[in-house]
Amino acid sequence: RAGSRVRVGNRPGVELQQFSLGRMDTTSSVMTITQADVSSKVNSFAITGDTRTPEAPETAKVAWSRSNFRASGWKEEDFLKPIVTIGAPYSNNMPCNNQHKDLAELIGEELEKRGCKAHYAFAPVISDGLTQGTRFMRYSLVSRDAICDTIEIMHEGYQADAIITLGGCDKSVGGVVMPMVRKDMIGLSLFGGPALPGLAHKQGCPDGEMQRVDGGVMSEIIPQLTAGLLDIEELHRMECAAAPGSGGCAAMFTASSMAFAVEAMGMSWPGSASHPAMTRSDTRGLTEQKRRDCEIAAEAVVKLLANKLTCRQIVTKKSLENAVAVVYACGGSTNCVLHLLAIAHEAGVPKDEFCINDFDRVGKHIPILVACSPHGKFHVADVDEHGGLPIVMKELLNAGFLHGDCITCTGRTVAENLAETKSIAELGDQEVLYSVQRPYKPAGNHILVLHGNLCPESAVVKLSGKTNIFHKGPARCFNEENDAYEAIVAGQIKKGDVLVIRYEGPKGSPGMPEMLMPGGALIGCGLGKDVALVTDGRFSGASHGIMVGHVSPEAAVGGPIGLVNDGDIITLDPNNRLLTVDVSDEEMAARRAKWSPPPAKPNTSGVLGKYAKLVASAHVGATTS
Question: Of 81, 225, 338, 607, which is most buried with the most CB atoms under 10 A?
Answer without folding.
Answer: 338
